Amino acid sequence: MQRQTTITENSMIWCGAGISIAEILTGTYLAPLGFTKRIAIIIIGHLIGCFLLFLAGIIGGQQCLSLMNAAKISFGQNGSKFFALLNVLQLIGWTGIMIYDGALAANGVWHLNQALWVILIGALIIGWLLVGVRHLYYLNLATISTLLILSGLLYAAIFTHHSTSSPTGTLSWAQGMELVIAMPLSWLPLISDYTSVAQRPVPTSGVSAVVYGLTSCWMVFIGLGAAILTHDINITTIILRAGLGIAGLFIIIFSTITTTFMDAYSAGVSSKTIFNKWSGTMAAIGATILGTISALIFPMDNFSNFL
Fold first, then answer.
1. Residue 158 sits in which domain range?
2. 138: CATH
3. What is the pTM of this model?
4. Of the candidates 75, 129, 148, which has an alpha carbon nearest to the alpha carbon of residue 286?
5. Nearest to residue 210, comparing CAs of 24, 59, 20, 47?
6. Tens digits of per-residue pLDDT, 96-117?
């Protein structure tokens, strides 16, 4: 019998999902809105999105099924395979985009070579996958603790500066709310992949949603403050203006790994809905390799809107 994951292990996984370049960039997009609207959108948007994330986690956790396997209840065997195939394809795409964005930002901080950064990040994600979601406790504990400390330094560096003006641009209340809600909703097809192997599915779903929501809010606030300070939405500029250097590079690389690992892992889980005899770990590694190759040869920015 395979070991089940604890609430603490799942909370660290979802804390890693919240510490993300994507969350920071979401915050930068909210900068043109007024102060009250920004705060309200961030809080209300996360409350709505994380509540739905919690419900999705319960579905998979109580049934001990990934969301794609749970889809068999409503759509049958072939229907669940169709949705699983779509999910695998979009997760491979997001794996490539996240690796590409992480490498681009890392190369902006330390001009090594973008292709080398892509390969390095892809290799580290594969390392995470080989350790396995049930045995990541100490690795995640060290990584997430360091990321939280460095994110705190980034937060302090940004909010000790003051700016009297906001970046120009137009963004409606509805557009801002959609951006924020989309962050937790993007994890909706994935959370059951983790709660389905949890010891206590319902509490784990609740803690995972809360931890992700709080961490995500924090990172969105960092992005918002950075945009107001720098009048820029470029993550490299934000890191350099904050004066973090190597610490900022660590944030970029390892936040990319902890986030993209979840996409690749879930691609492996969903692939087992299509081909039950496949190894989920090997399928996840295959998804990472395909994402890494895509980040090397394709203009990944062109695929973001489609995905």
1. 7-299
2. 1.10.4160.10
3. 0.84
4. 129
5. 47
6. 999 999 999 899 888 889 999 9
* C-alpha to C-alpha distance for 238 and 231, rounded to whole angstroms: 9
**Domains: count for the chain:** 1
Cα–Cα distance, 96 to 99 (Å, whole number): 5
* Token reading at 87: 């999910």
CA 272 to chain centre: 22
Residue in this structure with the two tokens 């995972």, named with its chain if needed: 208
Question: How far is residue 261's CA from residue 17's CA, in Å, rounded to a whole number?
Answer: 9
pLDDT surpassing 70 at residue 3: no
Task: Mark out the alpha helices in the chain (DSSP H runs).
Answer: 7-18, 21-29, 35-63, 67-70, 72-109, 114-131, 137-159, 173-185, 192-195, 201-230, 235-241, 246-274, 280-297
Q: Identify the DSSP state of 3.
A: P
Asked whether residue 86 is domain-assigned, the answer is: yes
Q: Is residue 120 part of a domain?
A: yes
